Amino acid sequence: MKLFDSIDRETLDGARLVAESNEFAIYDVGSDSYTLVHRHEGVKWQGVTISGDALFRIAELLAIATRSLYRDVAGDLSRRRSQP
Fold first, then answer.
1. Which of 7, 34, 49, 69 might form a disulfide with 2, Cβ 3.0–4.6 angstroms?
2. How many alpha carbons lie under 13 Å from residue 7 in its C-beta half-sphere?
3. Helix, strand, or coil here: 25?
């Protein structure tokens, strides 16, 4: 795993874009490696390069964290709606 405080956009020119949202993107950078990039226009691009296996494992962790966050938020909303 490599962390980048700053990623030169030109280094990703030859990489295949795998997925993107408005601020994040995942690039296939070869050799079973993927770079998750925070592409906010107001700051330097930052990112982390991980293996394909790590990508699967991190996706599982994010799914668990997302479910936990959803339960917490849904619980808070439910309590607020039940209060007079």
1. 49
2. 23
3. strand
Read off the amino acid at residue 35. T
Q: In this structure, what token pair is assigned to residue 14? A: 């030859």
Any idea where the domains of the chain sit in the sequence? Answer: 2-82
Cα separation of 30 and 60, whole Å? 22
pLDDT digits (tens, 9 = 90+) for 28-55: 999 999 999 999 888 899 999 999 999 9
**Cross-strand bridge partners of residue 48:** 3, 36
Tens digits of per-residue pLDDT, 1-32?
999 999 988 989 999 999 999 999 999 999 99
Q: What global pTM score does this model have? A: 0.79
Both tokens of 58, joined, read 């991190």
